[in-house]
Each structure stands twice: as C-alpha cells, then as structure tokens.
UniProtKB/TrEMBL annotation, chain A:
Chain spans, region Disordered: 141-162
Domain of life, per lineage: Eukaryota
One GO BP annotation of this record: mitochondrial electron transport, ubiquinol to cytochrome c
Location(s), subcellular: Mitochondrion inner membrane
Enzyme class, first EC level, given as a word: translocase
Family of this protein: Belongs to the cytochrome c family.
Name listed for the protein in its UniProt record: quinol--cytochrome-c reductase
UniProt gene name: CYT1
GO molecular function per UniProt: heme binding; metal ion binding; quinol-cytochrome-c reductase activity
Cofactor(s) named in the record: heme c
InterPro entries to which the protein is assigned, alphabetical: Cyt_c-like_dom_sf, Cyt_c1, Cyt_c1_TM_anchor_C
Organism this protein belongs to: Orbilia brochopaga
TrEMBL record, chain B:
Acidic residues composition-biased segments: 43-61
Keywords associated with the record: Electron transport, Membrane, Mitochondrion, Mitochondrion inner membrane, Respiratory chain, Transport
Domain of life from the UniProt record: Eukaryota
This protein's GO CC annotations: mitochondrial inner membrane
Membrane topology according to the record: Peripheral membrane protein
Residues in Ubiquinol-cytochrome C reductase hinge domain copies: 61-132
Name of this protein: Cytochrome b-c1 complex subunit 6, mitochondrial
Similarity comment text for this entry: Belongs to the UQCRH/QCR6 family.
Biased composition (Basic and acidic residues): 29-42
UniProt xrefs under InterPro entries: Cyt_b-c1_6, Ubol_cytC_Rdtase_hinge_dom, Ubol_cytC_Rdtase_hinge_dom_sf
Location within or outside the cell: Mitochondrion inner membrane
Gene Ontology BP annotations: mitochondrial electron transport, ubiquinol to cytochrome c
Organism: Orbilia brochopaga
Presence of keyword Electron transport: yes
Length: 320, 132
C-alpha cells in the first residue's frame, strides 16, 4: 500500500509538469525508476525499525514474565520424594492389613515415644489390625483420668476401647521442652498434611545419609535429611535394622519398618479408605446398570416416534 | 492388576464380609500385652539405637545396597561423577590454608539431590519387589 501510493503520486506529478508527450514518456519511466528506489529505502528502514521493536518488546516481555524466579535454593526446597508403587493406592486395592498391624507395632515401639496419635481411638483398631481382646489389653495398660469420685478428686483408671491413644507429652510446650524446642508433630493426619504424602514420609524415614554430603551446612542439634525442606531436621534417624521384632517373623529392616509404619499412618489419616473404595465400586456398578437401563428405556419409548414416516398425499383435484 | 483379582474385588464389594474383630479360637493375644509395656519407657531417640546393637541377629536392609547399585548405573553415573567432583573441590578448599582460600566453601547439596533423585527412581520398583 505504501509503495502503490508513492507510485500514484509520482505519476500524477510528472504528468502535470511535463506537457511534451515523448518527454512525458521518458520522464515517467525515469520517475518510476527513481521514486521506488527512495521508497524502497524507507521501506527497508521501516522494516528494520519494526523488527527491532518486535524483538525488543518480546525481549522485554520475556525479561518481565519469562523466567520463573525461585526464591528458595534447592536445599531450602528439599528433595522431591521418590514415588513408590504403594499397593493400597490402586483404585480397587485395600490397605495391606498385615502391614497395618506391623506398622502399628513400629509406631508403638518407636514413634510413640515422641509423636502423639491423638485422633485415633483404640476402638478404631478393632477389626482393622487387631482383635478386640488385643486392643482391650493394650488400652488397659494405659492410665486415663476417671470421673471425679465422692471427694471430687480425679482418680486414674485403666483405658477402655473408647479412649484415645495417649500422647507422650501433656501439651505442645512440654513436647518442645523435651525435644530442644522442636515440636514432634501429631501423626494422626500426617500423611494428608505433608506434600508428597506416603512417599514423603517413607523417603524421610529412610533418607538419612550416613554422613551429610560434602560442604553441607548442618546446624548443631539438627540432622541432615535431603527430603526435609531446609535439609536440617530435628528428628534424628530412628529406624535401624532390627529395632523391633515383628511377631509374624518379617525381617524388620529399615525400609520394611518404614513401609509398614507409613502404611499405618496412611490408615490413621484416612481410615475410611477401604470402605470408600468399596462404595465407589458399588456406585460405579449401579450407575452403569442404571445408565444402560435408561438408554434402553429411551430407545424403547422413542422407537415408535423415530421409525414413523409422515407422508403427505396432496389431493389430486386441488387445481380444479 | 490381574483379571481374577479384579473379579474377586468386584465380588467382595457386593458381598458382606465379616470384620474379624474377635480373636481366633487359639488365643495368642497375651504375648501382645508383654511388649506393649516397655515401649512406654522409651523417652529418648537414642535408646532404640542401643537396643538394635543388643540384638543378636540383625536383618540387613537391602535399600543401601540398591542405592549403591543404582548410583553406578549408566543413567546415574554422570550425577555421581558431578557429586564426586564437587566433593573433591570442597576437600581441596578445606585442605588449603585459610588465608589462601578463594571464595566461599561450596555446598554439594544440589549435586547430592540430583544423584539421589536419579538413584531413587531406580531403587523404588526394585525395593518394593523385595519388601513384604
């Protein structure tokens, strides 16, 4: 458009100023040659400018919005947990209840000295990992506050099925004081409460290296664990081979115990999982049948409508 | 998931299974009560470590061995190489006298992360095949 406009203008100028025909022809050809040269230079310049503007603006845009800015170093972020093929995470798979039983044993003998499990009652273990009598026996070993007696004093009584699993410390302050200021979190919902869930906890438990990597700065009182954000964790490695003795004879290696306890903690966080998956299966099965039925009914009802044929027979004597 | 497992899952989801809350006829619930008591006494984290040393026959974990193997595979070898190089640099830095040191002491955490990330992906299926 630019060039065409120029040409038109040039031809108009030449035809007005030069009356003689031949000269006109000659000069018009000259002008036609000369003027496009000038406009070509301007065009090139314009193209250069446009390209420069485009490159600069996209460069500016990339500078402004392109690169992701990480405010934390990888060490502060922590190593992403490795994904493990947990059996219970399949669509139709339940928890491995033998693993739950072993996991509870690990919790009780190892974790429970620092971590509470305050939202799990003894009764919830019944039929999941232990029998009634076993759970009753375990509950009775713990002491709970009884109702006030006639003098108004609160006595202690042995635990019952309806009691909750006792916490190792009276409150958070006591827990902090006993652990150099670090609060051992409650484990009832820990699988849901941590990014990475089961994988994170398993990696955390098994991920303590024998010695921190070269050059890593570990504050005093902390331990190096690559999976913990910041890599300095107050909890030391607790799972060592053979620390518990499984009653079913499973070799109690570090990874085996970690797997069992993580599965148990996953159960503690979502005890409804088995039931939920079963219900999901039922819902899918019933809705599939209902869908199939409704499709059949619809087809049945519409069959007469869909297969009918409307024929118009115009009267033959209409023009008469 | 095999077809038979799927079918048995479907079957079990339509039938009512009894929750086995009662102990089986042969009573072995009593021995559970014994080991329940001593867990209460453990207050410190160091104690379990001492206990482990007392054990006669310790089962050995295969996880460190698998990690070692995985770190040496062709896939993870470059990461291991990087980490070792970094560790060497740190060692050199430590060895030079204090007034001749240049810059800050390097941290190999990032290299270690890359190595562990690579090794972890390789370990996961192998470890799960071995665990119960």
């Amino acid at each position: 458009m630019f060039s065409r406009g120029c040409l038109r203008q040039a031809s108009r100028v030449s035809s007005r100023s030069l009356p003689i025909r031949q000269t006109i022809r000659r000069t018009t050809t000259d002008a036609a040659k000369a003027v496009p040269e000038a406009s070509e230079a301007r065009l090139t310049a314009a193209a250069y400018v446009a390209t420069a503007v485009a490159v600069a603006s996209s460069g500016w845009y990339f500078y402004q919005y392109g690169p992701t800015v990480y405010a934390v170093t990888p060490a502060e972020h922590g190593l992403h947990p490795t994904k493990y093929p947990w059996v219970h995470q399949g669509f139709l798979n339940t928890f491995d209840h033998q693993a739950l039983r072993r996991g509870f044993q690990v919790y009780r003998e190892v974790c429970a000295s620092c971590h509470s499990l305050s939202r799990v009652a003894w009764r919830t273990l019944v039929g999941v990992s232990h029998t009634v009598d076993e759970v009753k026996a375990m509950a009775e070993e713990c002491e709970y506050d009884d109702e006030p007696n006639d003098q108004g004093d609160i006595e202690k009584r042995p635990g019952k099925l309806s009691d909750y699993i006792p916490s190792p410390y009276a409150n958070d302050q006591a827990a902090r004081a006993a652990n150099q200021g670090a609060l051992p979190p409650d484990l009832s919902l820990i699988v849901k409460a941590r990014h990475g869930g089961c994988d994170y906890i398993f990696n955390l438990l098994t991920g303590y290296p024998d010695e921190p990597p070269a050059g890593a700065v570990v504050q005093s009182g902390l331990n190096f664990n690559p999976y913990f954000p910041g890599t300095g964790i107050a909890m030391a490695r607790v799972l060592y081979d053979g620390i518990v003795e499984y009653e079913d004879g499973t070799p109690a290696t570090t990874s085996q115990m970690a797997k069992d306890v993580v599965e148990f903690l996953n159960w503690a966080a979502e005890p409804e999982m088995d039931e939920r998956k079963k219900m999901g299966m039922k819902v899918l099965a019933v809705t599939t049948i209902m869908l199939a039925l409704s499709i059949w009914v619809k087809k049945y009802k519409w069959a007469s409508l869909k297969t009918r044929k409307i024929v118009y027979n115009p009267p033959k004597d209409i023009l008469k | 998931m095999t077809l038979s497992q799927f079918l048995s899952d479907v079957y079990s989801s339509f039938t009512i299974a009894d929750a086995k809350a009662e102990a089986p006829p042969a009573e072995q619930a009593d021995d559970k009560a014994e080991d329940a008591g001593d867990s209460k006494e453990e207050e410190k984290e160091e104690e379990p470590a001492e206990e482990a040393e007392e054990e006669e026959e310790e089962p050995e974990d295969i996880m460190p061995k698998l990690q070692e193997e995985c770190a040496n595979t062709t896939k993870c070898a470059p990461f291991k190489h990087h980490y070792e190089e970094c560790a060497e640099r740190v060692q050199q830095w430590d060895d030079t006298p204090e007034d001749e040191r240049k810059g800050k002491r390097e941290s190999c955490v990032e290299e270690y992360f890359h190595l562990m990330h690579c090794a972890g992906d390789c370990v996961a299926p192998k470890l799960w095949a071995k665990l119960k």
